[in-house]
Amino acid sequence: MNPPDIIVTDAPEAADLAVVSDSLDRFNIDASGIVDRRPLAVLARDPLTGKTLGGITGRTSLGLLFLDVFFLPEALRGSGIGSRMLQMAEAEGGRRGCRAAVLYTISFQAPEFYKKHGWREFGTIPCDPPGTSRIFLTKDLQPAT
Q: What is the pTM of this model?
């Protein structure tokens, strides 16, 4: 077999991303015996148009809830909607058997929002612009005993 061509792209096709994701998922299933990877979205939609205004996207896998992206337009921030959406994502992770959740945010985004909701910082990595960091957070989803 000839070695594969290796390319770098900022425009991968959906089929390319699926090959990588599905192959890693198959590897994880074979190694762990656990078939539990599922996408998760909590969406805020306009009640009149049904248009998505913002939301949370992530996934659950191998007992962890991963929150990848969380965005709300400025007009909805501070209204309690974000808190409710975060609680809904955490609750769904718990229903799916996740013992913990992980995410990262950027220092100019919302680290204090997450900490206010019981998330704990476990690492930071400097990034651009200078003086900015990615902040990694986790939260235990196990019910208190």
A: 0.90
